[in-house]
Write a sequence for this structure.
């Protein structure tokens, strides 16, 4: 359905659940999901609060196209203030929970306060109640999922929950839904656990409604589906190879962050790539990749379902990991692999399973392990600190043991759970933390892809590729090919990607559609479903409005221009190999012009004219 | 002269015998272009979306004129994406 025009407000302190009307004035300006929930958050909390205090709120938000027949219309986001970065956080997930929330009759759920005891929300078609989660606390995501299905005797119940890592305060814990899809970044799961909220279990069967022009909507979505099916990326490349196909691409162009970003190419890249996932292994003749998988309504199906080599050391006498489960996506494979120097595909798959099982972000985790490995190599960390683990680059055993410890909040895992920034500060080497605003980098070295440096530096949730994926243009040639080593034109490119992505993230659709779709394909679907007269231009304007709202939240939280930067390693230490050999990231050539075209002051503050123009 | 021919994703089926980890070491004559290598190995030009020589992108307009050098790495992908 398009907007249900209802939200569910759950006060965890009082134990109450109340429906209230959606603010439609805001919906017409911020659309839904990321944009609309960010507006609610910015209006309802003081940006300066402690993210883990009861004063923070956590919003699970769908978009107007979530749960509709639009291709990939199953997305939802979790919006809150991040404990990792201190910025606004918005973490997006697929799977099936978003559709279920919508079909239960709500556009979003706002959680506020803190429950005195562990609880979970049970939501079934307009009816919501908080139930005791005492029996679930201390359980993994996988155990919680199974227990809730059993307790409610409902195999179709959709569940989003936190694992033990979140309960133990890991600052990059996510909210996992449908066993292995996750709102994974920025510690949104940590906030959820801090509220003593273990899970959200939803059953929604109300169906689709409130489509502005149903006939036109069917026509628009059918047309758009044909575009996805006919595009070689969304119709063939992503289903067959998954996101992991990028492993060799990014390595070849010399932008593969390796060993805590000391290097830009990884000699073991092909051994942990999409191609490697297809190769039958000696032990059982089966490849790592079992099958691909699709989220609700998705006609792309890029998801990876994998099995680990039955003879691999990680799963000996561990039957719970022997079956097929959520496999490696590129970002996880990079962080767990190249950044730690580990080229053991099964070890990475196991670490990824653990991240899913106990709900923590494999990007931040892998990057933090990489920082720990570098500190271990220079002697800043010793075995006495790591509990006996030899944290050497390339050690699969160190990686997998670290994952097990973070999952349960045990031993050295408690230190790794702080994230790279806090860990490196604690051990006296803040310069070794590869983070922006406290969040770890994704898989693209900005020395080899200049636009990504500006993307990371200005991202409203700290280092992130999903806020403006200029890799698409700079490397993959979508929608047009630009030179990855050039800085001219990149501020305009980054701004365009940021605004367009903010709009797409507010619809309920998956951003991967944009490898085939432009806003010219998306706007007709939104317009047919929603009031407001949506065009590609008005969607771009909504995206720009959302971006400035997020920016203002961060400024009000205390961040400044000084936070729009990169680690010195990327600004001072040149790439050693590949096409970018000799290059650093030239952020200083891009940032001032970026501020200018954003309509911000030279200090990176949106001017009154900009805010008035956008109606923020 | 020697060329490291790298064919990835769904183009791997065009790799010559003896290729290891998506890479074939092949001999090519002087003044060979990327498209000539593709044609020799029956890789459809239309499927060669991303063509890199030593990691540097070669646009379609130059794939019939850029001359490969001894020891170059020619890496090719069909249309792919991720993130």
């Amino acid at each position: 359905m398009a907007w249900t025009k209802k939200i569910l407000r759950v006060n965890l302190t009082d134990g109450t659940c109340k429906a209230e009307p959606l603010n439609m004035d805001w919906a017409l300006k911020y659309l839904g999901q990321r944009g609309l929930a960010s507006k609610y958050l910015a209006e309802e909390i003081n940006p300066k609060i402690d993210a883990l205090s009861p004063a923070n709120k956590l919003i699970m938000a769908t978009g107007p196209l979530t749960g509709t027949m639009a291709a990939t219309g199953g997305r939802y986001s979790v919006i809150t203030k991040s404990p990792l970065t201190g910025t606004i956080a918005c973490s997006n997930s697929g799977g099936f929970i978003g559709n279920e929330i919508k079909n239960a009759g709500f556009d979003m759920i706002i959680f506020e306060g803190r429950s005195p005891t562990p609880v979970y929300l049970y939501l079934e078609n307009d009816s919501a109640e908080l139930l005791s989660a005492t029996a679930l606390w201390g359980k993994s995501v996988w155990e919680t999922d199974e227990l809730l299905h059993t307790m409610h005797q409902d195999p179709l119940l959709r569940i989003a929950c936190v694992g033990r890592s979140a309960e133990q305060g890991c600052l990059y814990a996510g909210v996992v839904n449908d066993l292995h899809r996750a709102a994974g970044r920025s510690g949104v799961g940590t906030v959820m656990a801090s509220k003593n909220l273990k899970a959200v279990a939803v059953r929604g069967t109300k169906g689709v409604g409130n489509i502005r022009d149903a006939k036109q909507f069917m026509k628009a979505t059918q047309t758009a589906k044909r575009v996805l099916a006919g595009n070689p990326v969304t119709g063939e490349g992503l289903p067959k190879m998954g996101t992991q196909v990028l492993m060799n691409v990014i390595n070849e162009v010399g932008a593969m962050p390796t060993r805590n970003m000391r290097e830009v190419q990884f000699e073991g890249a092909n051994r942990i790539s999409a191609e490697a996932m297809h190769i039958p292994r000696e032990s059982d003749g089966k490849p790592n990749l079992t099958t691909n998988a699709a989220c609700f309504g998705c006609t792309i199906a890029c998801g990876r379902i994998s099995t680990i080599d039955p003879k691999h050391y990680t799963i000996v006498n561990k039957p719970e990991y022997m079956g097929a489960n959520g496999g490696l996506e590129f970002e996880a494979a990079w962080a767990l692999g190249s950044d730690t120097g580990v080229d053991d595909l099964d070890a990475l798959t196991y670490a990824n399973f653990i991240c899913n099982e106990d709900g923590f972000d494999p990007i931040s985790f892998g990057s933090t392990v990489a920082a720990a490995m570098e500190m271990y190599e220079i002697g800043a960390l010793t075995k006495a600190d790591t509990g006996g683990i030899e944290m050497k680059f390339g050690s699969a055993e160190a990686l997998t043991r670290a994952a097990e410890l973070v999952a349960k909040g045990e031993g050295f895992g408690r230190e790794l759970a702080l994230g790279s920034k806090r860990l490196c500060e604690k051990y006296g080497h803040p310069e070794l933390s590869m983070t922006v605003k406290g969040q770890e980098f994704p898989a693209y070295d900005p020395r080899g892809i200049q636009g990504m440096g500006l993307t990371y530096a200005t991202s409203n949730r700290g280092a992130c590729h999903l806020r403006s994926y200029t890799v698409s243009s700079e490397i993959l040639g979508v929608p047009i090919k630009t030179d990855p080593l050039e800085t001219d034109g990149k501020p305009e490119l980054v701004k365009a990607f940021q605004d367009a992505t903010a709009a797409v993230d507010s619809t309920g659709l998956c951003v991967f559609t944009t490898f085939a779709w432009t806003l010219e394909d998306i706007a007709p679907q939104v317009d047919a479903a929603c009031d407001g007269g949506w065009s590609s231009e008005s969607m771009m304007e909504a995206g720009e409005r959302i971006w400035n709202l997020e920016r203002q939240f961060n400024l009000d939280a205390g961040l400044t221009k000084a936070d729009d930067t990169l680690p010195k390693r990327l600004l001072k230490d040149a790439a050693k190999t590949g096409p970018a050999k000799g290059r650093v990231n030239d952020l200083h050539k891009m940032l001032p012009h970026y501020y200018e075209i954003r309509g911000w002051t030279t200090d990176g503050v949106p001017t009154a004219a900009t805010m008035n123009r956008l109606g923020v | 002269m020697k060329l490291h021919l790298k064919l990835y994703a769904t183009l791997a089926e065009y790799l010559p015998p003896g290729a290891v980890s998506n890479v074939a070491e092949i001999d090519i004559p002087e003044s060979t272009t990327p498209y000539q290598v593709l044609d020799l190995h029956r890789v459809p030009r239309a499927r060669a979306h991303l063509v890199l020589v030593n990691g540097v992108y070669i646009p379609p307009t130059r794939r019939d004129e850029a001359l490969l050098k001894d020891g170059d790495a020619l890496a090719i992908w069909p249309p792919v994406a991720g993130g």
Notes: Chain B has a mean pLDDT of 96. The helical segments of chain B are 34-40.
